[in-house]
Structure formats: structure tokens, C-alpha cells
From TrEMBL, chain A:
Species whose genome carries this gene: Neptunomonas concharum
Membrane-spanning segments: none
CDD domains assigned: ABC_NikE_OppD_transporters
Subcellular location, record wording: Cell inner membrane
Protein name: ABC-type dipeptide transporter
Enzyme class: translocase
Length: 330, 339
């Protein structure tokens, strides 16, 4: 049995203008110790996915159908108190902006101890010891001093290390990291990603890394899923998708990276932009922007096609392969 | 100021510091039985010399807090330099008053980072574009203004019939196109772009970058392009200036900088870019974090994190030196042939 199994998850936001589906038919599995990347542009639903795993959606958002099975328990149907015993304890979450996640009026030590006391029967002294040990794990210089400091006294990179330390406090099975390095500079990003990778490997923690940065995903994760307009459009081993993307959108995303074009040449752009969720085109949501689209794509929703080790939601996968093979023959 | 061949904008010995000690009462402190006035400054730019050549795209890269945006704003005259000079085509512009600078404002335009904040939400696109055109060309007839708006909207790929809409009706990419249209509306020669694509998604980034490159070709524009994204620089820039803590540490033609970075900081920065190809590259790990620009380190600003620093680096401030291959680098190690 996989550690986490998401089945046909659908999330709705009830708005005055009618309800909007932010996630549709999202299914994937995560094994113990596995690292999964969730990629997509803003509005694709990747953060909503992260939130809905722990049922952290606040009104007007709610899970309208589907299941999130964690060790056989359906998180979508648990009571608030049962959920609390899992949140932070078994599955913890790291958010994008460490300044927003840390409480500005509590010291680092207080915040860490608070988290421990809430979940464990543990004495204050022991809690402090655990906190200190975790701070050491995330390689913060002079950790003893940090316990008595406030978040504003620390730099962005250091704050994100603290957030990671808090995420690891209770030795969770899964860490969901929502754009953990987007607010940081590249040199700091490289350090933090390295640290997270190390910690996950050492402690056999599964990681769900939500990001828009394909470079980061390719270096950290083993499996990835690409989202577009609330749906998964491609999933499989990261290496395979990076080296040989099947879905035209994934291909477009990769080709749009500046490193994929010769200096001074025009970048390969995808025309148009992602449709708003209220107004998703019929058939394949990507069809108005897709250069391969034909009649079927405008009417029928593509189901997943197995291609190698990847699942691709595209009508044209087989045809595109033929074309590619044909080109090679020529 | 001597004019160099085909240099459009010259920045000479630019310094900019910001006071962070509040007003006079905040500055007074009681120390050792006496009341003393204590002032603190953020040293945002410390002696920057740059030439933007006619027709090029000069990229300024660096991490947050290195002063790259301050350089952009000072060049545009949005901030007054603490000391130093800025010249446009040989004419000094940094000390001009609001009226005197007007003719230069028409030639220099700026594109900002966040298109959600830089467009007025209460103005239609038509009004947004109309304002600079009318302001800088008071003699234009209404029909000419309308034609001009039509033309710039068309050239940035925004449907000219959408002029009556408000900015909130557009997506991020379209908004950034409109800000580019606003900059192009007065037919500038020089555009300062401060992180114009960092708020946008990957597929939209490509569209906006292409648009900026097209505009450069068609209108013979010169760019000063501020960014933290090195992969964009590699694609877009003619030359690159790498900044660290308010100083330029390396200035080189793009190709050269990427194939053979000389400054240890540039090397570390380049190695930290997450690439698609390799699994876990061996990036150069820097020790510690960027020091605060309030108390600048002595000597080379980078010495605290530099793996090659020696005694001289800790004491003497390195200056930009031209190497044989045309790279300019401010590093004692490179100068002494240690690196």
C-alpha cells in the first residue's frame, strides 16, 4: 500500500458567481521516502493540491469529491481533531514565504516548543533539547542563540531553515513544500534545496515539492506531475519527463526556458495564456494554445495514455510519436 | 565629462546611501554621560562605474539587496545620487530639476517589475497610454494620439479594441505588455527594465522577452535590464554586470561571462543556477550570507564569503580592471594571477 494515495480528488470554490472547480480528477500515489514534484504555472491548482491533502482549504474552498488516503485513512473525511493529530505530526507543510509563516511576536524557541508540546507528552526541558537538535540538523550557525531570537532578527535563508526545522520537529512521514525557495536568492536556494534533499534522504521522509521551477524539480525529485488548469496532464519519473516530455504543454514549458534557445535567438513561446478556472475550454483545456490540436481535442476530454513509464492526458500522443518516428526515418 | 564613443549612458563613481536612523530625535542617543547624534546608513551603491552602449542590452544581475534596482532608479532620476554623476549622451542629468529633465524623460523610459502595481487600476488602458503621449507631445492632435495608441498596442500584441478596459481585466502577461506599450508610447531611445519578467510564469516570460527583443530590433532601443535570473541574462544580454553589495564585481560580454567567469562570486552564482540536464551538480558553496549594507566589510566586500580571500582582500578595496580578453573584474586574486 502506498503511503499516500490521492484518488479522483476534486476541489470546488463556491463563489457568488457560481462554483469553480480548482482541481478536477487528480489522482497520484506517493511511496515512503519518495520525492514528488508538482509543476505548473500560477493558477494551475498546484498550491490548492498541497492544501487539500491536509484539508487546509478554508471557505469557500472545499473538497467536493474524491479521497486522500494516508495509510488507509481518508483525510478528506476525518474530524477536525483527528486531522490535527496528523497535521504537523505525520504530514507537515513548508510555505513559500518564511516571514509570513513564522509568528513575529514569538521567539524561535517558543514556536518550536509550542509545536512539540501540542503533539507530544514531553517536558519543557526535553522539548527545548529536541528543538535545539533540529536546529543543528538544518545547519544553523550558533543554534543556542537562535532559540531566543525573533524571526525579524534573521535573514530570509535562515528563516526558511527554521521553518524546515519546525517541519521536521515531529519526524513526519511526508513534507509538503509549497514553493519553499521562491522567495530566496539562487545561492541560498541551492543551499536550502541541498539541505532538504539531504534531510529527506537521511530520515526517509517523503517530499511533495510544489514549484514552478523545472530546474529545481529536475534536481530534487524522482517523480513529477505537471498540472494545467486544475488537472494533471502528465505524470511519471522526473528524468523521463525532463528528457522526453510527451504532452505538448510540458514540451512548451521546457522549450520556453531561456537555456533552450540559442543566445540572441527568439525564445520558443506558448501562445496565449492559461484560461481562468471559470472559463475552461471544452475538451482538452490546452487545445486553444496547442499547435497539434484537431477536432477531437475541442470536444473530448483526453484520458491518460500510458507512454513509457509516464501517463499523458493527450489525444495526440500516439500520433506525435508516429510523426517523430517518421522524421527520424527521413 | 569626456564622452566615450557610442556610449549612451555613463555612470561615474555613483554612490547612494539611505539614512535609516529616522528624524533628529530618533538619532539622539545617551552615551557615556553625553547626548550624541548617531546616524546609520544603508550603503546601497558604493562607487559604480558603468557605460551603457548605444543599441546594447546591458544586464545587471545580483542577489536581493545588492543595489541593482537602486542603480536603475538612480539612472532614471527617481532617486538622487549621494555622489557621482550620470550622463546621457554626454550631458549630465543627475542634478537637473524637474523641468530641465523633461526632454530626457521622453528619451528614457522605465518598465517595472510588478505589472499589477505599476498600472493605475482606475484608468483604462486608453487613458494609461494617452497620458504620457499627451504630456510629452502637447502639440499632437487627438486623432494623432489615438493613432499612436493604436500603433503601440498593436506592436505589443494587445488588441487595440480593448482600450476601454481596465487593467484588472487583463492577465499578468498582458499587463506587462501594456506597461511595455506605455514605455514605448513616447518613442524612447533607452529603456530601464527592472525585473520585468520575474512576476510572470515561464511560458509568459518567454512571450514578454521575445516582445522586448523585437522592440529592440525594430526601434533600435538600448536596454538597461535588471534581473536576478541568470538564465534570462544568458539569453538576452549583450554585456553583463554582476553586482555584489553595491559594487560591480565583474563586467563582461555575456558569452564570455558564462563560458569563463573570473570573479569567485560570479563563479558561485553561475554554478547555483538549477539546470535541467544534470542531477545534482557540484555547485560552489558560499560560506555564510550576504553581509548587511549597513556596516560594509573592509576591503573587498566579498571577502567574508570568498574561499580565496587573503590579507590583501580584507584590507584593500579592489577596483575593476580590464583583462586581456575584455572582461573587467574587481578581484585581487585575478589581478595577482592566483585565480
Amino acid at each position: 500500500m502506498p503511503l499516500l494515495e490521492v484518488n479522483h480528488l476534486e476541489v470546488c470554490f463556491g463563489l457568488r458567481s457560481g462554483s469553480v472547480k480548482a482541481l478536477r480528477d487528480v489522482s497520484f500515489t506517493l511511496e515512503r521516502g519518495e520525492r514528488l514534484g508538482v509543476v505548473g504555472e500560477s493558477g494551475a491548482g498546484k498550491s490548492v493540491l498541497g492544501f487539500s491533502i491536509l484539508n487546509l482549504l478554508s471557505r469557500p474552498g472545499f473538497i467536493s469529491s474524491g479521497h486522500v488516503n494516508f495509510e488507509g485513512k481518508d483525510l478528506a473525511s476525518l474530524s477536525p481533531s483527528e486531522l490535527r493529530s496528523i497535521r504537523g505530526n505525520r504530514i507537515s507543510m513548508i510555505f513559500q514565504d518564511p516571514m509570513m509563516t513564522l509568528n513575529p511576536v514569538l521567539t524561535i524557541g517558543d514556536q518550536m516548543v509550542e509545536c512539540l508540546l501540542a503533539h507530544r507528552k514531553i517536558s519543557m526541558a526535553d522539548a527545548k533539547r529536541v528543538a535545539l537538535q533540529k536546529l543543528k540538523q538544518v545547519q544553523i550557525p550558533s543554534p543556542e542563540k537562535r532559540l531566543d531570537q525573533y524571526p525579524h532578527e534573521l535573514s530570509g535563508g535562515m528563516r526558511q531553515r527554521i521553518v524546515i526545522a519546525i517541519g521536521l520537529l515531529l519526524d513526519p512521514d511526508i513534507i509538503i513544500a509549497d514553493e519553499p525557495t521562491t522567495a530566496l536568492d539562487v545561492t541560498i536556494q541551492a543551499e536550502i534545496m541541498d539541505l532538504m534533499l539531504d534531510l529527506c534522504e537521511k530520515n526517509n521522509v517523503a517530499l511533495i515539492l510544489i514549484t514552478h521551477d523545472l530546474g529545481v524539480v529536475s534536481q530534487v525529485t524522482q517523480k513529477m506531475l505537471v498540472m494545467y488548469a486544475g488537472r494533471i496532464i502528465e505524470q511519471g519519473p522526473t528524468k523521463e519527463i525532463i528528457n522526453d516530455a510527451q504532452h505538448p504543454y510540458t514540451q512548451g514549458l521546457m522549450n520556453a526556458l531561456p537555456q533552450m534557445a540559442l543566445p540572441g535567438q527568439k525564445l520558443n513561446q506558448i501562445r496565449g495564456s492559461m484560461p481562468p478556472l471559470q472559463n475552461i475550454p471544452r475538451g482538452c483545456a490546452f487545445n486553444p494554445r496547442c499547435e497539434y490540436a484537431f477536432e477531437t481535442c475541442k470536444h473530448n476530454l483526453p484520458s491518460f495514455t500510458q507512454s513509457g513509464n509516464c501517463l499523458v492526458a493527450c489525444h495526440m500522443v500516439a500520433e506525435m510519436k508516429q510523426v517523430a518516428a517518421h522524421k527520424e526515418e527521413l | 565629462m569626456t564622452e566615450q564613443t557610442n556610449s549612451l549612458v555613463q555612470i561615474r563613481d555613483l554612490y547612494k546611501r539611505f539614512s535609516i536612523s529616522g528624524d533628529l530625535l530618533d538619532q539622539l542617543q545617551f552615551k557615556g554621560g553625553k547626548i550624541v547624534r548617531h546616524q546609520e546608513y544603508v550603503h546601497a551603491i558604493n562607487g559604480v562605474n558603468l557605460d551603457v552602449m548605444q543599441g546594447e542590452a546591458l544586464c545587471v544581475v545580483g542577489e536581493s539587496g545588492c543595489g541593482k534596482s537602486t542603480v536603475a532608479r538612480t539612472v532614471m532620476g527617481l532617486l538622487n545620487p549621494t555622489s557621482g554623476q550620470i550622463a546621457y549622451k554626454g550631458e549630465r542629468i543627475d542634478h537637473l530639476n524637474d523641468r530641465q529633465i523633461l526632454p530626457f524623460r521622453k528619451k528614457m523610459q522605465m518598465i517595472f517589475q510588478n505589472p499589477y502595481a505599476s498600472l493605475n487600476p482606475r484608468m483604462t488602458i486608453q487613458q494609461t497610454l494617452q497620458e504620457p503621449i499627451q504630456f510629452h507631445n502637447p502639440n499632437m492632435s487627438a486623432a494623432e494620439v489615438r493613432d499612436k495608441i493604436h500603433e503601440v498596442m498593436f506592436s505589443v500584441g494587445v488588441d487595440p479594441t480593448w482600450g476601454e478596459r481596465y487593467s484588472h481585466e487583463f492577465s499578468g502577461g498582458q499587463r506587462q505588455r501594456i506597461s511595455i506599450a506605455r514605455a514605448l508610447a513616447v518613442d524612447p531611445e533607452f529603456i530601464v527594465a527592472d525585473e520585468p519578467i520575474s512576476a510572470l510564469d515561464v511560458s509568459i516570460q518567454a512571450q514578454v522577452l521575445n516582445l522586448m527583443m523585437d522592440a529592440q530590433e525594430q526601434r533600435n532601443l538600448t536596454y538597461l535590464f535588471i534581473t536576478h535570473d541568470l538564465s534570462v541574462v544568458e539569453h538576452f544580454g549583450t554585456r553583463v554586470a554582476v553586482m555584489y553589495l553595491g559594487t560591480v564585481c565583474e563586467l563582461a560580454p555575456t558569452k564570455q561571462l558564462f563560458s569563463q567567469p573570473r570573479h569567485p562570486y560570479t563563479q558561485a552564482l553561475l554554478s547555483a543556477i538549477p539546470r535541467l540536464e544534470d542531477d545534482r551538480p557540484d555547485y560552489i558553496k558560499l560560506i555564510g550570507e550576504v553581509p548587511t549594507p549597513v556596516n560594509l566589510p573592509s576591503g573587498c566586500v566579498f571577502h567574508g564569503r570568498c574561499p580565496h580571500a587573503n590579507e590583501r582582500c580584507r584590507q584593500e578595496i579592489p577596483v575593476l580592471r580590464m583583462l586581456d580578453d575584455g572582461t573587467q573584474v574587481a578581484c585581487h586574486g585575478v589581478e595577482e594571477n592566483r585565480l
